[in-house]
Design goal:
- The chain is mainly alpha-helical.
- The chain has one domain (3-77).
- It is built from three helices and no strands.
- The N and C termini lie far apart (46 Å).
- It is found in: Cell membrane.
- InterPro entries: Cyt_c_oxidase_su4_prok.
- Keywords: Cell membrane, Membrane, Transmembrane, Transmembrane helix.
- It comes from Pseudomonas wadenswilerensis.
């Protein structure tokens, strides 16, 4: 698949996920959508799916850890 098509599909998916974030507006769902957007940006726009695996997993892990910490903070806040 040509790179321009992949980038266009990633952009469309990010737009749909952003709309879903606005429409749903619940804490847990927003965090899951944010993690999905981080995955799309890492693999799609940054093209780390073809790059060093260490960087790919580091960026994907960072997004998941950040989402988990924010979720924990929201849970503890009540």
């Amino acid at each position: 698949m040509p790179t321009s098509i992949v980038l266009l599909l990633c952009w469309l998916a990010l737009a749909c996920l952003s709309l879903g974030t606005v429409m749903l507006g619940q804490g847990t769902v927003i965090l899951l959508l944010a993690a999905a957007k981080a995955w799309l940006i890492t693999d799609g726009f940054m093209e780390l799916r073809h790059g060093p695996q260490r960087w790919r997993w580091l960026l994907l892990s960072w997004a998941l850890v950040l989402a988990a910490l924010v979720g924990l903070g929201l849970h503890l806040r009540g």
